[in-house]
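Bumping with the actual sequence this time:
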Amino acid sequence: MKYLIALFALIAPAGPILANQVELESTVFVERSEEQADGSVTVTLEEPSRVVPGDALVFVLTYENTGAEPAENFVVTNPMPEAVVFIEAIDSGAIYSVDGGTTFGALTDLRVASDGGVERDVLPVDVTHIRWILTEPIAPGASGQLRFRGAVR
C-alpha cells in the first residue's frame, strides 16, 4: 500500500511554472507484457490500481506552454520516488543525479562510493533524480512529453 501512495503522490499534477508559463503534468503507468499465441509480445500501459515489487512502470511528464511567449531553457527535474528504482530514460537528453539532486551528469560520468569507500561506476539503483534541459524554445501552445522507466522496489 505504501508503494501505491508514493506513486500517486508523484503523479499529482503540477501547476503552471510561472517563469515560463509552462504547465507540467506527471502520470505513471504499469507496463505489462503478454506473449501472444504466435510468439510475439504485446506491451500495454495500464493505470495503476495496485502495484507490487517488481512491477515495471512508465512515467510520463507532459509539458505545455500556456503562455503567449516562447518558453526558453525549460528544465524538468524529477526526483525518483523512494519506492521506485530507475531503469532507463525513454527520451534522450536526460542527465542524472546520484547525490540527491546536488550534481547532474551522464550516467557514464558519475561515480559513487561503495560500502568499502572505493568509488565504483553508477548503477541504475543509485539514481536519485532525472533531469531534462530543453534547449529549444517551447512555442506558445506547444507541448511534449518526457518519459522514463522504473520498477517498484
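The C-alpha cells above came from a reply further down the thread. Residues 64 and 143 are 4 Å apart (CA to CA).
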